[in-house]
Design goal:
The protein is mainly beta. The chain has 2 domains: 135 residues, Sandwich (Immunoglobulin-like), CATH 2.60.40.10; 206 residues. The chain has 3 helices and 35 strands. The protein has an 8-stranded parallel sheet, with no helix packed on it. The longest helix has 26 residues. The N and C termini lie far apart (132 Å).
Length: 410
């Protein structure tokens, strides 16, 4: 086989390494690749990994679990999830400021509402169906002398308008802390709802018989009527009554206040023989402690505003205690003896402040407890209360939920 020079075309001998005619190399030339330094290879590899990581992170952020965080409310899918202090389901409460009396215990609800962001309608059922777990806890109160406490979120019949609430317990010395609700969704998402709680101290005024006339019903009424012009808004007013018998009653209507009875060395207690009424147009509770109500018909203690009687006795009234209007009333550790009706609930309010009616004695009444209308469907708990020799123990015409499992019927 003849070989020819690729340069001049002359015939070449077999196995020739160069052309004898043009003296040129006849081996084909190969271009060599420029060597790539090792460092550059590593950098290129890292860049590729970074690109892959960025793509992975983007996919995770786009399709993986999401985190949502907000004060007062969070928008999630088609829902507005919010925390409120009152029953307004459209008013988020990111900051809650509450006046508090030192060393006094308080309880308020943190209410959850879920609204459809398009229609504004309640969407709690659809939202909660996607919730795996929900918790609540306070943070930021390591140095508080009286830390805030909260219950686990749950449905509460005392506030049927909201699907879940957490009960917040605190005192006037609790200071400031943050409440955190956490929702773990079934799809892996996390929702965090926050509220800041701050308790501001409120002034307390104590009136004593050594300093103010209050030996008669007329003097006591005059003192009660004068208080609204002497104290600032939201002040707590305590009247410490002498161990006398008031031949008559009093009406509390211009200012919410508390009456504390007393007992002298002879065993005489603060006593009212006329009707006492709580009509103050404020949401605070009027408290009655350690006193006797002795009547001859009529109504002993009544109120259209919230009130509570503790360690009091009621004897000889047509109706010993009556809650009407929009009132919520409680009786705790009281004695009802020989009345027509001992405790009568006939209120159309929408708020319940305490479910306990514990440690009372109902004896010899025609009707011990009569329930015609009670705000909300919270169960009234008569734990430790005793019913003895009454015509009827409980007349529950409104079918109010009751807990009498630990009551005593004789």
């Amino acid at each position: 086989m003849a070989y020819k020079c690729p340069h001049c075309g002359a015939d070449l001998p077999e196995n020739a390494a160069f052309c004898p005619h043009c003296a040129r190399d006849i081996h084909p030339r190969r271009e060599t690749k420029k060597p790539v330094p090792l460092l550059k290879k590593l950098l290129l590899g890292l860049m590729a990994l970074a690109v892959l990581a960025a793509v992975g992170t983007g996919l995770w952020l786009a399709f993986g679990p999401q985190a949502y965080d907000g004060y007062g409310e969070v928008r999630y899918k088609d829902w507005q999830i919010l925390l409120a202090l009152n029953a307004d389901s459209y008013a988020p409460a990111p900051e809650v400021t509450i006046p508090g009396e030192p060393e006094v215990q308080y309880r308020v609800p943190s209410r959850l509402f879920i609204n459809d962001i398009h229609t504004g309608e309640d969407a709690s059922e659809a939202f909660l169906a996607e919730v795996e777990a929900v918790t609540a806890a306070f943070t930021g109160q390591e140095d508080s002398p009286s830390p805030f406490l909260c219950s686990e979120p749950a449905y509460n019949p005392g506030a049927p308008e909201c699907p879940l609430l957490s009960l917040i317990d605190f005192t006037g010395e609790s200071g400031t802390a943050e409440l955190v609700w956490t929702f773990q969704m079934k799809n892996g998402d996390t929702l965090t709802l926050r509220q800041t709680y701050e308790v501001t101290p409120i002034p307390v005024y104590d009136y004593y018989p050594e300093e103010h006339p209050m030996d008669t019903a007329e003097e006591l009424q005059a003192l009660i009527d004068s208080i609204s012009g002497q104290v600032e808004d939201l002040a707590v007013v305590n009247l410490h009554l002498p161990p006398v018998t008031y031949e008559g009653g009093v009406t509390i209507q211009d200012w919410n206040l508390n009456l504390y009875g007393s007992t002298d060395n002879a065993g005489n207690r603060t006593t009212f023989t006329g009707p006492v009424r709580a009509l103050a147009p404020y949401s605070n509770i009027t408290y009655f402690y350690d006193m006797d109500f002795v009547g001859d018909g009529g109504t002993g203690l009544s109120g259209s505003a919230p009130f509570r009687a503790t360690n009091c006795t009621f004897t000889g009234w047509d109706t010993a205690v009556l809650a009407y209007g929009t009132s919520w009333a409680n009786v705790i550790g009281c004695t009802f003896r020989n009345n027509g009706i001992g405790f009568h609930f006939d209120s159309d309010g929408e708020y319940a402040n305490h479910s306990m009616y514990n440690d009372n004695l109902f004896e010899g009444n025609e009707v011990a407890v009569q329930l015609d209308s009670v705000p909300t469907d919270v169960a009234l708990n008569f734990q430790g209360s005793a019913f003895r020799d009454n015509g009827q123990d409980i007349v529950n015409s409104c079918d109010q939920p009751l807990d009498t499992s630990q009551a005593i019927f004789e």
